[in-house]
Design brief:
Oligomer: homodimer
CATH architecture of the largest domain in chain A: Alpha-Beta Complex
Largest interface: A-B, 40 and 44 residues
Structural class of chain A: alpha/beta
Number of strands of chain A: 13
CATH topology of the largest domain in chain A: inorganic pyrophosphatase (n-terminal core)
CATH superfamily of the largest domain in chain A: inorganic pyrophosphatase (n-terminal core)
CATH class of the largest domain in chain A: Alpha Beta
Amino acid sequence: MAKLTVSETAAYLRQRDCFAIVTHRRPDGDTLGCAAVLCRGLRQLGKTAHVLENPEITQKYAHLLEGLTKTSVQEGDTVVCVDVAADTMLPECFKGLSFGLRIDHHRGDRSFSEHELVIPTAAACGQIVYDVLTQMGVSLDVPMANALYTAISTDTGCFRYPNTKADTFRVAAACAEVSQDLAMLNQVLFETNSLARLKMQGWMVENARFLCDGQICICPIPLEIEKEIGVKEDDMENISGFPRSIEGVKIAATLRQEGSGKVKLSVRCLPEYDASAICQKFGGGGHRGAAGASMMLPMEEAVEAVIAAMPQL
Amino acid sequence: MAKLTVSETAAYLRQRDCFAIVTHRRPDGDTLGCAAVLCRGLRQLGKTAHVLENPEITQKYAHLLEGLTKTSVQEGDTVVCVDVAADTMLPECFKGLSFGLRIDHHRGDRSFSEHELVIPTAAACGQIVYDVLTQMGVSLDVPMANALYTAISTDTGCFRYPNTKADTFRVAAACAEVSQDLAMLNQVLFETNSLARLKMQGWMVENARFLCDGQICICPIPLEIEKEIGVKEDDMENISGFPRSIEGVKIAATLRQEGSGKVKLSVRCLPEYDASAICQKFGGGGHRGAAGASMMLPMEEAVEAVIAAMPQL
């Protein structure tokens, strides 16, 4: 495996004519945005380029790849993957492929591509793709700016996460120079919640238990409440982050019942506390800021156990 | 009144030595961030500068002005107001003052200052203050970068609103070059909600009226509900953006009762609709995406009038 710089990557792409671009499993805004902008950039230079159809693409992102996809690699294609940290991150249908180039901001454990451009300090893979295309003399058009913006905004929580750097804002500025659509993209990507999700949040606020002057929030969600409100799994994505966002809350524990009688615990906390230490007491784990565990207890007993496992604040 | 350019404003400030800086009523991140960064910038150049204590400042922003305030104007002070669109926007205690300079991004109906630098295309007043200070050779330090970031991020909904421009991102990049605190600021400014705010949102979700298959959301908030939940004005900041964030909602109208019997209407909508056209029917105005009006009607009649003013979707 050969490690390339940005300009070596530009040279590598210049020397080839046909490309098949590959995205990762459960494709997000970064991998799909990168694929779209790279594909369009290569086409702008007169190359033949396609993104391979990812069977797991969701509706929210489907517009990015309109007119850019094909179903399989053809003779003579150089296969390039974007934002794919490991071959285990590939959808099944791409696993046998022979990769010419990997562009990524994840370091990755073991290489699965002949060449690699990896810049772990980049907030999003989109920033790296943008640098490569700029080096090649590509100029952004509106669909490219929208795709690039999708890549960098989704991987930085719309510029809120600590990975956001001055360079991230510079790439965003380049997108804003070209496209008038960014506010509309933001609405779709970041400012829309389902009614069921919002009803669930309303229920949680009314039914949460606050301890230690509101510094700890325990939020048990009975299964019948989920059914009554009508939330689907999609509506519950990262729901455990919600009680942590209540002013004054430093540690939040959300408990959800599963049909099997299990209770799923999720803990979120501010940087000075350790969510994984709490979850380890129940055989679970995770990171300092976010961790989880499964508990084989009735809900009320699980709540008492979690309260007992909390640090003294 | 004399209109100044950025470089004329820089010259105006250079020629003077003592400054009292004034912020607007219900001070937000832009007016306070501008005041802090302008005050620190002028001090960096060896000037004497203070921000006049605004009695309405809230806890969230109090840190911005630490060590920068004084209570009243002194002999020889040039009074500069930032982000103050009209003298009616001044807190009572600043109303008699004689203003030397107004820096703003709101056009304003009638002038109340001897000199003005007004750039209506700027997303935040912070961008204009940054341009003036840059012109004067000031360089950002960490507290200035944090104050400037507060100004531009709050006025653009953390870069989500349509007023966000390439220049906004460029100023954000300048802040990110200097400060490591931006992600922490984001948590405080955008990812923390008071319990009262969240209870209000929960109430709104349960009590909103949906029309046209959920594309229009009308949300009347009776004064007694605000009292019962215990929201303060701070908790209600940009509350009218909330119903617009419900999936499928294209136009949202929020109506709040004021003690005087008035109803305050705020309309938010997707780019393809025009909030200001709706509010103009009630003598109000604003932008396409966000507009408002005051209505002298009982709540139920106001709601019916607003429903009648909605476009057919």
